[in-house]
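FAQ: What does the model actually see?

It sees only this:
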Amino acid sequence: MLVELKAVPLTADRWGDFETLFGPSGACYGCWCTHFRIPTSERKTMDGDAKKEFMRARVTKGPPPGLLGYIGQRPIAWAQVGPRSELPMWNSPKTVSRPLDPADAEGSSVWAVSCFFMNSRDRGKGYSHRMLSEAVNFATTSGARILEGCPIERTKQSKSVGLYVGSLRIFEAAGFSEVAKRKDGRPLMRLVL
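And it is asked to produce this:
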């Protein structure tokens, strides 16, 4: 039986919880969830501390760039969700997640849920379904009209770090439909809100 997970927007007053969840190495290889936010050429010149400070400044500036999931007071999960316009690398013409219409990358009503991170001891327990559900609610109440994701169809294990983009299974369960497939195993999924 799953313990109730509560998801809340990441605001500056919750930065310490984000930092706790991501740990000293910054989650996935020191990314600090900057992979889709910073052009590759610039990101490659940044160390983990610079990426962490970039994300801290983004959180401080607002609005919230995603949701933190908690079990009690313990942060266990993250979902990056917000307007596509904030994610230049997710919109790049070279990526499988590029928008169907280039205008979708410019406006404020087409959103993306682009990254997930789960505390390693809590992976494989179904919490990603709840985080995606909360991301849908957050996008809806924030004025999005479309929410997109570009999940992975399969991994070798349910606890794989490669699931940072989410699994196809959770997007299908949340009602998303495939709208494009530019690479085998990585469909672009869409939910009209």
